[in-house]
Amino acid sequence: MTKVRPAAAASASLWERAEEVAAIERVVDTLCADRSSSGRVHLLRGDAGLGKTALLAETRRIAEARGCTVWSARGGETLRSVPFNVVRQLLQPALLSLHPEEAREYLGDWYDIAGPALGIADPGEAPADPQGVCDGLVAAVTRLARRDWPLVLLVDDAHWADQETLRWLAAFVERLDELSVLVVVARRPTEVKGDSARHLDTVAAAAGQSVTSLSLLTPEAVAGLTRATLGEHADDPFCREVWAVTGGNPYDTVELLAKVQDRALTPGEPSATELRPLNRSARGGGLVTRLEQLGVDATRFAMAAAILGAEITVDQAARLAGMRQEVAVRCAELLCSARILTAPDAVAVPADDGDLEFVHPLIATAVYDSIPDGLRRAMHGIAAQVVIDAGKGLAAASRHLLQVHADDDEELVEQLREAAREHLAVGAPDAARRCLERALREPPAPDAHPHVLYELGCATLLTSPARTIEHLRTALSMPGLDNAKRVDAVYRLSQALTHNDQLEEAVRTVEAEAARQTTGPARMRLQAVQFMWEGIYAGETTSPGRSEKLTALAATCTGRDNAERALLILRGFDAMTHGENAEVVVEVCDRALVNGRLAPGLGWTDPEWGLELLMMLASSYAYTDRLDRAEALFNEALRAYTTAGWSGGHLAVAHAYLGLGLRRRGRLREAEETLRESLRIAERVGRGLPLYWSAICNLVDTLLARGHTQEAWDIAEQYGFAPPYPSTIVLPDPRSVRGRLLLAVGRTQDGINELEEAEKAAAVRGHLNPVMVPWAADLARALATEDPARAARLASDARRQAERFGTDTAIGEALRCAAALETGQRAVRLAAQAVAYLEASPCQYEHAAARVEYGILSRSASELHRGLTLARSCDADGLADQAQTALDALGAPAVGLVPGQKRR
């Protein structure tokens, strides 16, 4: 640390901060030098009072002197429960400079998604997806930042920022490679736990080595600051005592010297004994004593300001303190003179929309903590009404409502429930959860109690399945829910149990409730949900005779309502997985549609049924060679989730299944790109979930089809594509895909073992569809040399099952396997038959593979040419190499590459 005075114009709080200021100058100069350069994060870290805010103010001065646009915001200790508080502050300058139509133009499709969180658009009726809102905020800042380059973002007291802002900030800093923005974040090194700590760790990781850790001032620096403030005649004993009582804390030092000036003390050794009592009055109990000396009115006004926390206006503080306007004005002036309150400093980090702010967060904390508990809770109740009367809504008032003393207040319960709905509508489920948990402590009236629990369970479904289970079980154990809401609560409880890997209990829960219901739509819905959870279970079926019961029940369905349509979809999926005739599968699935489309109330974003059912429908079409219908559904899902701003797990699944459809179509490069996007989103949602397995499994399968074996292996190793597998089924079968991967990298015995495990698992579930669970063909090829008899039996069984299923793809693939086990003309004839079937199939990669294999067996250059052309059109690089090698061996002319394609 450099022990020199700052420039005369610099703040006293910047004393001995020359190196820190120089580091800031360097990062600002780097930003301004090149518009195409990557953005970066600079982190200021230090305990309270070490000068983080002063350095941010200096950052603003430096940046503005170089022509930068600067946006700034500050977290607040009492404001952490206000969602999007800090990011709203940050964007205020940009948003206020835009007319509403300009804002809509800049934000584009993200306007309706991020706009409600920013307070510039009305929320929709349905809860917003938190991840979608986060992505919308990232897009909003990204677009505005490109307009305002060079842009510097300042975030002070990030340890007190709301969780929604920190989630956005963590996502935004990960995008800085493609955006030239400087983000400067100031925080204390402690005081953060849970998700907020994780988000701040992401910010710190983005900063890398660009971190300034602030230290206490040295005795020499304190002596220099003392003499600069009080005069060169301050003697050494006095200066040493200033350092001793403040510990070198810059804030305490500046405050102490100001008090010395107020008292007109001579800065000499005789006065040194008075420094310690003066320093105690700067914070904590000493500050409270000093505040009380200003009078009762000033104390009440300061308490009101501490309760408000932000946007402190004289008018609102007067209402909260219960005093006349003219008295409040005098109190504000008195508190400003005493350096407790001050006007917002536009050069530092501006307040939102108020007349006043506390001089330092330490003062705000001390005043807030000094308010007796009962009085503080009562003042929060009044503050809530002040906020409501100002037209800011119950969501804005909820931070005060959370602090009110519990008192069987039915009106408060209803206010908290409405605030929770408002929070959900803008994508802040954690804020909604806090409101509903507080409503339970009131407590609610008996008739409202189960409804609050139900709403709480819905709010925590995606973020905390275990907590959701507890809330919904309790709600269902109470009287008060009407039958429709009770059925919905049971469905949501089963969803939570499934997400919590308690699938069998989910089935039993729905089954028990269905037994309580009389014949009708509600019972049929629950029966459909039970069959749905059993249908995605990867283990042994939990209900004996499940398929037979489902077949009988579906036979009575005409598709007159969504419960019947759901049962038809489930019947079609069950038939597909069991390898029944594909025409039967398609006929049943078609009956679940209305004029070839999804019925109203059964769409991708409709909450009554969830996405699992529609993924079953689309998968049934995908594996019965109706890829046009499957792709239409997958694309519809992607459009629906993107339009609705659902960019969490739903979007990951949509990309994964769209990738599956592209893979089956033979559009391998597009499939890989889509699946990589699915994996990126799934990583953000969390590893281990079924959607994560769908992304990994399909990506590995696609890379193997492309011939990128090493890359497939690296992906599998990096992302844990290995046992144990999830309890829900994944398409295609992960054991089959991993077995093929092991064979491809030369681990033959491990591959055989994995494929045999796939065989056992398929037998347990009755999954006989040879295309969905394609272990048999790979296992037969692997055993062809060491156990040819068993290999032949496997190939024969696969062919029989394929003919039972009846699709061109299934039969063609079975014939390819049979040809690989034969020799001579029999092998050639089987390969030719495989080509004939697969030529009629929509699966172009399999068609290409059959052409190449037939060309090799028949030594036909024309067939190899056709196979090579098909392989290249599929971007199946490994297959294209195989075909070209065979052509070279035949001495055939080389086939030209498509434009832009390299010979591998």
TrEMBL record:
Top-level taxonomic group: Bacteria
Domain Orc1-like AAA ATPase, first and last residues per copy: 24-184
Entry-linked SMART domains: TPR
InterPro entries reported in the protein's UniProt record: AAA_16, P-loop_NTPase, TPR-like_helical_dom_sf, TPR_rpt
UniProt keywords, alphabetically: ATP-binding, Nucleotide-binding
UniProt keyword annotation of Nucleotide-binding present: yes
Protein name: AAA family ATPase
Organism of derivation: Streptomyces phaeoluteigriseus
